[in-house]
Amino acid sequence: MNKPFIFALLTAVVWGLAPAFEKMGLDGKIDPFIGVVIRTIPIALITFVALFFMGRAHEIVRIDLKSALLVATGGILAGLVGQFLFYSALKSGEASVVVPVAAVYPLIALVVSIVFLGEAITWQKAVGATLVAGGVMLLR
Question: What digits encode the pLDDT tens for the residues 10-56?
Fold first, then answer.
């Protein structure tokens, strides 16, 4: 197996474990927005500390503004807005339904990539998108 596939598989395992912890935490008296804040604090602290220990803090000043703004926009959309919506759904819904439905984001990314980034549609992508959409319809 190649390295990107192994990393992607490990990502799926980690991302599959995380909602169970989050659902258990949200079952308490934590509001979804407060949950996002609590989730974000250790991530920010750990990444800043790691950046300094790796000796890479100076690299931040070399990033061009456009790239930084685009990445920040993605972070706000996924890490703040998306996570808040996900926690709101997870707090009141079943994780076994909420997580797979939320996980259709690659389908949205596929459409956005084709429409706005000019990426090609292939028959494999079309079949995959159809299967994803069908799976969501089954969970409704």
Answer: 998 998 999 999 999 998 889 999 999 999 999 999 999 999 999 99
**Amino acid (one-letter) located at 51:** L
In a domain, 116, yes or no: yes
DSSP3 helix / strand / coil % (the chain, rounded to 5):
85, 0, 15
117/87 same-domain check: no
- CA–CA separation, 114 vs 39, rounded Å? 32
Predicted TM-score of the model (pTM): 0.83
Domain membership flag for residue 11: yes
With the C-alpha atoms ordered 36, 37, 39, 43, is the resulting torsion angle positive or negative?
positive
Q: What is the domain extent for residue 35?
A: 3-93
Neighbours of 9 (CB within 10 A): 11
Long-range residue pairs from 56-62, CB within 8 A, at least 24 positions apart, any chain? none
Q: Does 36 map to a domain?
A: yes
**In-domain check, residue 78:** yes
The whole-number pLDDT of residue 8 equals 87
- Residue 115 is predicted with a pLDDT of 94
